[in-house]
From TrEMBL:
Gene3D superfamilies: NAD(P)-binding Rossmann-like Domain, UDP-galactose 4-epimerase, domain 1. Residues 4-225 form the NAD-dependent epimerase/dehydratase domain. One of its GO terms (molecular function) is UDP-glucose 4-epimerase activity. InterPro entries: Epimerase_deHydtase (IPR001509), NAD(P)-bd_dom_sf (IPR036291). Belongs to the NAD(P)-dependent epimerase/dehydratase family. The lineage of its organism: Archaea, Nitrososphaerota, Marine Group I. This is Vi polysaccharide biosynthesis protein VipB-TviC.
Amino acid sequence: MKFIVTGGSGFIGSHISRYLVKQNHEVIVIDDLRRGNLKNLQDIQDKINFQKINILNFEEMQKIAKNIDGIFHQAGLGSVPQSFKEPEEYHNVNAIGTENILKLAKQINCKVVYASSSSVYGNQTKFPISEDAKKNPLNPYGESKLQAEKFAQQYAQDGVKVIGLRYFNVFGIGQNPNYAGVIPKFIERLLDHKPPVIEGDGTQVRNFTYIDDVVRANWMAFASSVNHAFLNIATGITTSVNDLAKIMITLSGQKLEPEYVDSRPGDIKKSQADTSLAKKLIGWEPEFSLEEGLKEIFPKNW
């Protein structure tokens, strides 16, 4: 089969591209390299068709979208702090860019599986969070992802097959600490034999989800008979940032105590997913615990 992976040189996109190549599929990677890095594709660069295209450039995407079986749309901007500085840019890339992908899928008649986010939920009072919970994003990033979902709903009503995966705190090899979550930032500090820096009091709770589980969710969503849905992709198991720091310090073999700084604006206090719908609709459930995933990515030599 032949697939387009947008944002294919980024963290999640490169892992999906690699998975598809290993399954002997033909892969066209679309990426403008604003956030992505070709180093993420080094091991498969001779097995993919890389196109440096911005997803806001619809005409350029049209030119290369021939005989496509499906699109894995992972391109986007993902930094919550940066979204406060560039709200319009986040709307353009994450919302309008997604609409472009949906428009393309309608033209060429193929299914889209795309990266939504747990950020659409904001702070909730009922846990675990199910997909029908009220949406209350706390930052422009979350708002842009919610707007993308509204576009997905519109195009689904018009016959486009589209599944949005609401990722919860994805981690794994290849994350950029500058734009990613807490785990790569902690690893970067520990590699320098420095204590992890925790924003806020560390009691904020997260669902850390390993990249291999996310890749599998993307494929299972595409391969399923489901035409339209939004699905939580997470372990469903909560870990506080304080506990995460303790686990990672222990894995590093160092004796350190975390440092604390002010919490950042737009930060969610608690995040815990109900993943039963993903299991019901596409047969997906997580295989990696937080500790198992961390052991996969932790440097072997400190």
